[in-house]
Amino acid sequence: MHQFSEVIFIRGKKVLISLGGTFEPIDSVRGISNKSSGKMGLALAEQAYIRGADVTLVAANVSVRISPLFNVIYAQTSGQMADTIFDIIDEFDIFISTAAVGDFEVADRKDIKISSESPFDISLKPSLKIIREIKKINPSIFLVGFKAEFDLYYDELVKRARKQIGDAGSDMVVVNDVSNENCGFGSDNNKVLIVDDAGVLDLHLMSKRDVSKKIMMIISKKIQDM
């Protein structure tokens, strides 16, 4: 697939990276979230910065310390993240969507604290698929999607990555199986497949820093060749 290892600089390119996990309120104090830490997104931001890019982060809930080197916009819910990204996406050359955006939001959020004295039901509705809207707003952007799947075989992981390419027009999709040992949400390591029009690159288990280097090398090469 990709046979290169040199550092390719992308000075002057504006890179937007979403990271962390969204929080979807149920009532005034409770909500639905996920275990995303933001580690992968931050590692990619650091690699983009090293290569000379102007990096902006849209951060949901994260467990990492974000350097003041980066311009950071915080967005807690999937709706807030969507609004933030849509407002600024036409300013960027590259968007890397690592955030674990909730697939569902509460249909009837309460603005009070629901009593715990009796059971209650929660109705969920699908949240907007942010990545599917990006190319509609900025057709020329280089779009990188991330997909976290659970307990799937290689062929199915590739199939789902290619489906996102078809649905969203992603230029590249990074997919991983979070059921694999040592590479779940919050881990310092990852094992991913990088899927694009050149084929599939299967990366063995390595640190997220090393994964981010591989990903940014591919992105930088493709941007250089455009």
Give the structural class: alpha/beta
Number of helices in the DSSP assignment: 5
CATH domain class name? Alpha Beta
Radius of gyration: 18 Å
Could you describe the 3D structure shown?
With 226 residues, the protein is α/β, with parallel strands linked by helices. The protein has a single domain, classed as CoaB-like (Rossmann fold), CATH 3.40.50.10300. Helices cover 28% and strands 25% of the residues. It has 5 helices and 14 strands. The protein has helices spanning 39-50, 78-88, 131-137, 154-168, 208-225; strands at 14-19, 24-25, 31-32, 54-59, 71-74, 94-97, 104-106, 124-126, 142-149, 172-177, 189-190, 192-196, 199-202, 206-207. The strands form 4 sheets. The chain has an 8-stranded mixed sheet, sandwiched between helices. β12 (192-196) and β13 form a beta hairpin. α1 crosses α5 (208-225). It is globular, with a radius of gyration of 18 Å. It starts with 13 loop residues before the first strand and ends with a helix. The relative contact order is 0.19. The mean pLDDT is 93.
